[in-house]
Design a protein that fits this description.
It contains two helices and nine strands, in the order H-H-E-E-E-E-E-E-E-E-E. The chain is α+β, with helices and mostly antiparallel strands and 157 residues long. It has a single domain, classed as Sandwich (Immunoglobulin-like), CATH 2.60.40.2470. Strands 1, 3, 5, 6, 8 and 9 form a six-stranded mixed beta sheet that branches. The longest helix is centred in the N-terminal third of the chain and has 22 residues.
């Protein structure tokens, strides 16, 4: 006569199998690393074939960041923010993060001003690009380079 497995035995066996499958997929996956070309492609997906002008966008990032986990970022776009002339969106891209499109903020004329601030994560020293999408279909941009260093306690003497 066959003995039926208890629910506890079944759950332990199923959990072990799931962990083994999950561990195999983690080991097989290499860390993602974006390239400047991946960033350009992500920008093309947002703007299409439209020309991107320089100006009107102000991007504020520290030129040197010791901790790439929390880099302060502020973006503002010059606009009267009226129903006829306003900023529809602000997009932020990076060239070396695993995902080149970091964030997109959707705005409308009732926002009052086109200004956003947050903290982003940067994987390495790189260029950050901010693009303002206007209600008339035009795009404006600014870029900034950020040097990301290791914390002093992690450096070898």
């Amino acid at each position: 006569m066959r003995r039926r497995a208890s629910r506890r035995e079944f759950l332990v066996a199923a959990g072990g199998a799931a962990a083994g499958i999950g561990l195999g997929s983690v080991i097989a996956v290499a860390p993602a690393r974006a390239t400047p070309e991946a960033m350009r492609e992500a920008i093309r997906k947002v703007v299409g074939s439209a020309r991107i002008g320089t100006g009107r966008v102000k991007l504020e990032l520290p030129p040197l960041s010791e901790n790439g986990n929390t880099v302060p970022l502020a973006v503002s776009v010059e606009s009267p923010m009226t129903a006829a002339d306003h900023v529809k969106a602000i997009h932020v891209f990076t060239e070396k993060n695993p995902q080149p499109e970091v964030v997109s903020f959707r705005l409308g004329p009732r926002a009052g001003r086109a200004s956003v601030a947050t903290r982003i994560r940067l994987a390495d020293t790189q260029t950050v690009v901010a693009i303002g999408e206007m209600s008339d279909g035009s795009f404006w941009s600014a870029s900034a380079s950020v040097v990301v260093t290791l914390a002093a306690c992690l450096e070898e003497a």
